[in-house]
Amino acid sequence: MYQLICRMHLFNFFLFCCVIQLAPSLPLQEDFVYHWKAITHYYIETSDDKAPVTDTNIPSHLEQMLNILTQEERERESGETGPCMEYLLHHKILETLYTLGKADCPPGMKQQVLSFYTKLLGRIRQPLLPHINVHRPVQKLVRLCGEVLAAPTENEEIQFLCTVCAKLKQDPYLVNFFLEVSDRDIWDLLVYRHIGTVAISPIGMSPSKSQSGHICTERSSSLSSHQPRGISLPEPAAAKCLTENTELSQLLTDRLAQFYRALPQSMDPLDIETVESVNWGLDVYNLKEDAVAFAGKRALISFLSWLDYCDQLIKEAQKTAAAVLARAVRERFFVAIMEPQLMQTSEVGILTSTALLNRIIRQVTSEALLQETVYFLLGEETGPETPVGITQHPLRHRLIEHCDHLSDEISIMTLRLFEHLLQKPCQHILQNLVLRCLEERNYMENKQPEEREEREHMENGQPHDAVDLEEDPLFSDLSPDNRLSSPDWLSCSPPPSTEHTKPDGKTEVHKIVNSFLCLVPDEAKSSYQVEGTGYDTYLRDAHRQFRDYCGVCQRWDWRSSPKPFEKCNLDSPFFEGHFLKVLFDRMGRILDQPYDVNLQVTSVLSKLSLLPHAHLHEYLLDPYINLAPGCRSLFSVIVRVVGDLMLRTHRIPDFTPKLLLVRKRLLGLEPEGMSIDHVTLLEGVIVLEEFCKELAAIAFVKFHASTSTSP
């Protein structure tokens, strides 16, 4: 009996399988309608609206509808709309889903609707947004996003907004369907509510806090690339609407100001400089650990993260929109918020605000925002600078004066700020700070320079410590592949000075290099007594840095050779400019300044010397230019320092052994022991010797770069 029953069941199962195989499957449209009606029947038949949507069949029905639409498109010719899609459009299913999502009934329905919209727009290849029954509910759903900050649906909102932005960027003409909305809501929400939702945890994230106290911010993978979407549309109408008819600029700048005001009034500049890279809140952090690290760490990261978001937004934006947004940051943040901080008299406040400004300059990469930042700091003037006009731009004047502040910390931080500025790819920085003062070459006398006795001496008999560059092992090792191979480098690297160029260029560069190497007298030198501190150590660094500068400056319209004398206005009085004046003044006091200040001053001057501009090269690196009365050059400033040094060294007992001991201590080769008198002067002498070697290396590298690309 048991076996008979088993056989009957097996036979019935076999018949059932045959029926399933032979019965035709439901047409896709009928299947699609079935799933949609199953969703609508739920609302008709169910009285319990408090049960979560995950306890119903709604998610599976929505997923089946998406699968059917995808299958239908795959089975039809490209661009052809199938009956299922026609049904979705004709019956305004997206409108109905929006209404259900807005009501969030049953609980969690909003999340399901956002996910459905996102997948529909992402999976279907044919353009859906042009359909009125698609872009209208999409607009409404965009308005729904960001209404509640840190909402449970935040991740789905971000995915949806990113998908819409990606569709607009993929087909820019689609933006016109959104621009038809007269109340501008689509841009207000698509752009800046999206920003408020996406950016970083203090404003719009839904952090989940574990028992360990860590806050984990879950973000979609689409944000990991740190690239804003949707704002780089090439449509002029979109850019105009974005900048004129929305409050995007105000939102960006107000929030930037909000984060800046949340920072502590006093912060350690080292903390500001070394805080980890920003990542828009895509991190795991511990509030207690942050507080132990330093006060205000989380506030600082939030500010820098928002700044980076604004910078990237401007970088990706359409050109007109980028200019407007960058201008807003300048006016509403830099001028309104930062300038009073930089102009204050409190030393603690000056130091903190300058350190923050330094970090901002390092971080900004977008061309439009960099330009507005530079205009804010230096002004827009490019004409010749005059002594009475240095206060024309008060902030520029104040910052340059801070390079020579009574507080060494403020001086160092401000000098570092200018050093970072000089490395930015912005021609206006160099034009405004130095080049506009050298354009007419009126630092030279209005006559052809004559060969001096010193030059004859250098030519007929070199000093005993002169360097034979022909036998330098570094440059004998530089193959053509390692040299500055671009032909454009020749135009960026002027000869030392065409006014006194000799047929033998190698002889000329020998004289210039040795002029710097021999500036410091033998009794004041100590590097030869310590291994690894020779002149050649600067050559590779100079070669690399000059190559990098030339790469930045190639697209600038710079002089490849000095302006001819007959075209220069040599009768106009020469003013070296406020910036160079302060640098030269500080260089002149190198024997009486702290070691760290001297390092920063010489670092800025070496950056200027590396720049491939004919007049700057001539003014800073040519020892033999015939200066006009009352004018000074970098070489002449160093000569005066050496003269002062010679008078003072004879007054210090055991000068040479003390100098060597100080050098070894600075290098960590000797432990700190008994205090040494005149240590500031001794450290200044060491910096002076090293700086002269660095200038010699720069002069040779620039000459070598030009000759290595000569035909």
UniProtKB/TrEMBL annotation:
Amino acid composition bias (Basic and acidic residues), ranges on this chain: 446-459
Pfam families found in the cross-reference section: DUF5917, KELAA, RAI16-like
The keyword RNA-binding appears for this protein: no
Region (Disordered): 446-506
Residues spanning the signal sequence: 1-25
Entry keywords, A to Z: Signal
Positions of the FHF complex subunit HOOK-interacting protein C-terminal domain: 576-668
UniProt-listed InterPro entries: FHIP (IPR019384), FHIP_C (IPR045669), FHIP_KELAA_motif (IPR045668)
Family: Belongs to the FHIP family.
Protein name: Family with sequence similarity 160 member B1
Provenance organism: Cyprinus carpio (Common carp)
